[in-house]
Amino acid sequence: METLSENACFGGVQGVYRHASSACQCDMTFGLFLPAEAKDGPVPVLWYLSGLTCTHENAMTKAGAQAWAAEQGIAVVFPDTSPRGEGVADHEDYDLGQGAGFYVNATQAPWAPHFKMWDYVAEELPGFLKENFPIDGDRQAITGHSMGGHGALTLAMNLPGRFRSVSAFAPISNPTRADWGRKQLSAYLGDDEAAWAKHDAALLMKEKGFDGPILIDTGANDQFIDLLRPEALASAIAERRQQATYRLQPGYDHSYFFVSTFMEDHITFHAEALYGD
Ligand SMILES: N[C@@H](CCC(=O)N[C@@H](CSC=O)C(=O)NCC(=O)O)C(=O)O
Questions:
Q1: pLDDT of amino acid 235
Q2: Which residues are catalytic (predicted)?
Q3: Is the peptide bond preceding residue 110 cis, with omega within 30 degrees of 0?
Q4: Average pLDDT, whole number, for the chain?
Q5: From the alpha carbon of 50, which atom of ligand 1 is closest?
Q6: Where residue 269 sits, what CATH number does that domain have?
């Protein structure tokens, strides 16, 4: 592992690290905020999965998570959104290829050799963090924005028992029925839509739900709201009678001004689950 930077931040440390990923077959960079409490032993961790076009850096510098995480004594990890590098496939569109891994394991050419973001976030990075940092693997929660909200919800529902709580900011909610989804799922997973279902939060909600609390915020003025399809997830939540708070925030768009506005609520929400019994 290479330490790219470490900065004092709200009494803790905001670090950026690079390591060789066997899942993605390339070097991967991630951000990790450790609160002051991490000096004394393992702390709970909140995963923050970012959206299209992001690296580990966007949320780390724009979401305002560290102040609230420091208050709660929680670590926050900011993974990258895709494999990267010269030998890694890419596409001219901003929503496919590097910066747009969609948190799936690609099976199709030219993506399959490197685009294994599901394995990276679900398996490899958690193991790597546990080995190298004071992280309590029994107290994990997950959140994310847009494509990252999709990743957070699908990981939480597919890995029962892993996360105590899940939240999302403007998540892509029904990707099998929207252009933010169909394009990427067909490119990465192929045309058999049966393989897409485990990556659709609204379908997963109908099929299995989540054994814990959920908080979702979406801006009512989100410029991408038709691509996000919040109504599909909200109706699946209602149908299932899932424990959840789903808020449409008047006036807010899709930007990090929206994310940072509600970050305190989300971290407080996760802290209750992480410090509960
Ligand atoms: N390039 C497009 C849209 C890019 C965009 O808005 N990306 C969002 C996530 S969208 C869903 O996953 C984002 O987080 N951008 C990074 C940031 O720092 O704001 C366009 O420009 O319209």
A1: 98
A2: 146, 222, 254
A3: yes
A4: 98
A5: 14
A6: 3.40.50.1820
Taking the C-alpha atoms of residue 208 and residue 266, their distance in angstroms, rounded to an integer, is: 23
270 catalytic residue (yes or no): no
How far away, in angstroms, is 63 Cα from ligand 1 center? Answer: 13
**Ligand 1 pocket, mutate which of 48, 49, 50, 52 (most atoms under 8 A from CB):** 52
Question: Cβ distance 191 to 109 under 8 Å?
Answer: no
Decide whether any atom of ligand 1 lies within 6 Å of the 56 Cβ.
no
Distance (Å, whole) CA 73 – CA 86: 38
- Domain with 149 in it: 2-274
How much distance in Å is there from the Cα of 51 to the middle of ligand 1? 7
In the chain, what is the straight-line distance between the N-terminal and C-terminal CA atoms, in Å?
A: 34
Q: Whose CA is nearest to atom 18 of ligand 1?
A: 58
Exposure string of 117-151, with b = 16+ CB inside 10 Å and e = fewer, is bbebbbebbbebbeeebbbbeebbbbbbbbbbbbb
| Number of domains the chain is built from | 1
Distance from the alpha carbon of residue 100 to the mean position of ligand 1, in angstroms: 10
Q: Could you tell me if the CB of 58 is within 6 A of ligand 1? A: yes
pTM as predicted: 0.98
pLDDT tens digits, residue range 30-58? 999 999 999 999 999 999 999 999 999 99
How far is the C-alpha of 57 from the C-alpha of 61, rounded, in Å?
6
